[in-house]
């Protein structure tokens, strides 16, 4: 395996062939340079179209020949992050087919495993694609249209470095010694970084990475102010504000976080998902709507029957692995949801019909044949649970306006508790639970409630993981009555679960001398199951 400049050299032209709009491509054996892209307006357009296509490609890292099933682009992060929180369990008859369970059980998290290699390489692939577009646009002479392309690419790059910063910057914990790498994020690769520089490219300190990200967002805001993307598969100005709000929360810039969350809400102009949309058996969480600020999408031509989002996330699907693993919510998290909160109907209650008349295209008997806590959140497209190329050709949310309301409320609460409580009450009572009243008596209680709300709201979407790491929320999977499917899942961690600090692959360490002795510690089995509860 080679270093990031070589093993992420899947070009934007190669990615672009996933899009039906492409009229000219580059040879698959070569890498599309920024000069090649810039030399052809058609190529630049195709490369821009390739960015969202790359995010939902089956096996983008290893290719279909290897078929390592967690290799599915952006949705892989959604599943990883949900597993890291301990919010999802495989309760099916063949739960061993949950290829993502390593993130939940803290297994296979060392520097030489595919579970470590896939997320690292995917992130730098996404960054590389954005870099190539940025390099192809001469910002001093470009039209508003080309500057808009550059603006979208800057937003993409900022987003992936935001991901990388949160995943790889270590947080102190009780289980591994991170003292030698505290405050370090990841190597920074821009459109100007030479390949030779990648062989001695150190991890960037937190403050510097934040500056890089905010600088990209400044450019994105500038260039997108006079440009409207043709679809929300591309980031627009509201998404730029949304990313900035997320970055500011991570960096504890609470006033700025609240400001940009509100700017995102106002610029977007959409409203939260309704109860009817949420539970629709044909379109529930598979079709973008007025709440989705940013999304990616699957096409029948570019997806595999096993490696696709709904094949993992929709229990109703007959293809993929969900029909074997039965993706289900943690009992303690479910039990905390009030009966008056209609989001609770996303998972099957132990009382079945006594609680709610669950709606499914599979029929009511199908519900009773499955375990309690089974997820019904992610539906098959048009209710087609048999044909993967139809039922799985879905949209996947990357940013919803609801997240901005939660960021605004939390950021306000961390400055003035009563302001935050008022904002949270206003959102949840209007859109989710009519009788809701936040009763937090302290900032700590308020943070706990915010995290709970986001774990429920974004279950399966992975959004709450970065909040949990920032809040040092820990996990509790071993408790009386737990529905954890086996002893290896019964992990209780205070503060930071050790594999919340992702490890850099050994292949990258070996090829980048600046990373020698600068990797995060291997967290595998640093926590032992709790069996005496």
User: Judging from the principal axes of the Cα atoms, what is the shape?
Assistant: globular
- How much beta, percentage-wise? 5-15%
Uncertain runs with pLDDT below 50, 5 residues or more? 1-32
Helix content: 40-55%
Structure notes:
- By secondary structure, the chain is mostly helical.
- It is built from 22 helices and 8 strands.
- It has helices at residues 4-7, 12-16, 34-38, 41-55, 74-84, 101-105, 114-136, 144-168, 206-224, 237-250, 254-268, 275-278, 309-313, 322-325, 331-335, 364-368, 388-391, 401-413, 417-431, 443-457, 464-471, 506-511; strands at residues 88-90, 184-187, 203-205, 292-297, 327-329, 395-400, 475-476, 492-493.
- Helix 10 (237-250) packs antiparallel against helix 11 (254-268).
- The longest helix is centred in the first third of the chain and has 25 residues, at 144-168.
- The radius of gyration is 22 Å and the shape is globular.
- Mean pLDDT is 91; it is low at 1-32.
SSE diagram, text form:
Layout: H1 4-7, H2 12-16, H3 34-38, H4 41-55, H5 74-84, E1 88-90, H6 101-105, H7 114-136, H8 144-168, E2 184-187, E3 203-205, H9 206-224, H10 237-250, H11 254-268, H12 275-278, E4 292-297, H13 309-313, H14 322-325, E5 327-329, H15 331-335, H16 364-368, H17 388-391, E6 395-400, H18 401-413, H19 417-431, H20 443-457, H21 464-471, E7 475-476, E8 492-493, H22 506-511
Antiparallel strand pairs: 1-5, 2-3, 4-6, 7-8
Helix pairs in contact: 4-7, 7-8, 8-9, 8-10, 9-10, 10-11, 10-18, 11-18, 18-19, 18-20, 20-21
Entry keywords:
mainly alpha; two-stranded antiparallel ribbon
């Amino acid at each position: 395996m080679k270093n990031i400049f070589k093993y992420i050299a899947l070009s934007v032209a190669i990615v672009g062939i996933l899009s039906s709009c492409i009229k000219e491509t580059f040879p698959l054996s070569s890498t599309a340079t920024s000069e090649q892209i810039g030399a052809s307006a058609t190529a630049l357009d195709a490369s821009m179209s390739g960015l969202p296509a790359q995010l939902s490609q089956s096996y983008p890292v290893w290719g279909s020949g290897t078929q390592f099933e967690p290799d599915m682009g952006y949705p892989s992060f959604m599943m990883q992050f949900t597993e890291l929180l301990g919010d999802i369990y495989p309760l099916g008859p063949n739960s061993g087919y949950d290829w993502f369970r390593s993130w939940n059980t803290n297994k296979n998290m060392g520097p030489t495993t595919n579970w470590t290699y896939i997320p690292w390489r995917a992130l730098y692939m996404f960054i590389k694609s954005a870099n190539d577009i940025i390099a192809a646009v001469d910002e001093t002479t470009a039209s508003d249209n080309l500057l808009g392309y550059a603006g979208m690419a800057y937003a993409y790059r900022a987003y992936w470095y935001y991901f990388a910063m949160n995943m790889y910057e270590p947080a102190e914990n009780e289980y591994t010694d991170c003292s030698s790498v505290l405050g370090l994020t990841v190597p920074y690769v821009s459109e100007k970084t030479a390949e030779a520089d990648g062989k001695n490219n150190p991890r960037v300190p937190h403050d510097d990475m934040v500056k890089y990200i905010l600088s990209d967002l400044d450019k994105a805001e500038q260039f997108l102010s006079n440009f409207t993307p043709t679809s929300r598969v591309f980031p627009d100005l509201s998404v730029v504000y949304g990313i900035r709000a997320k970055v500011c929360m991570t960096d504890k810039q609470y006033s700025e976080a609240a400001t940009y969350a509100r700017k995102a809400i106002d610029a977007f102009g959409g409203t939260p998902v309704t109860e009817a949309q949420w539970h629709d058996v044909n379109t529930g969480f598979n079709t973008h709507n007025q709440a989705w600020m940013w999304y990616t999408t699957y096409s029948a031509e570019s997806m595999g029957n096993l490696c696709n989002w709904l094949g993992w996330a929709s229990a109703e699907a007959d293809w993929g692995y969900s029909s074997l693993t039965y993706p289900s919510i943690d009992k303690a998290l479910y039990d905390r949801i009030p009966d008056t909160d209609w989001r609770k109907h996303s998972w099957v209650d132990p009382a079945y019909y006594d609680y709610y008349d669950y709606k499914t295209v599979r029929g009511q008997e199908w519900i009773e044949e499955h375990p309690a806590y089974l997820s019904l959140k992610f539906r098959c497209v048009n209710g087609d649970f048999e044909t993967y190329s139809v039922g799985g050709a879905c949209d996947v949310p990357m940013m919803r306006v609801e997240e901005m309301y939660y960021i605004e409320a939390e950021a306000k609460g961390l400055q003035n508790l009563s302001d935050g409580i008022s904002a949270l009450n206003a959102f949840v009572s209007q859109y989710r639970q009519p009788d809701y009243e936040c009763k937090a008596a302290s900032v700590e209680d308020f943070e706990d409630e915010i995290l709970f709300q986001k774990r429920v709201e974004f279950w399966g979407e992975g959004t709450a993981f970065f909040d949990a790491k920032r809040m040092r929320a820990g996990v509790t999977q071993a408790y009386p009555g737990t529905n954890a499917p086996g002893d290896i899942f019964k992990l209780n961690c205070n503060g930071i679960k050790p594999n919340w600090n992702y490890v850099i692959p050994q292949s990258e360490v070996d090829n980048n001398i600046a990373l020698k002795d600068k990797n995060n510690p291997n967290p595998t089995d640093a926590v032992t199951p709790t069996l005496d509860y």
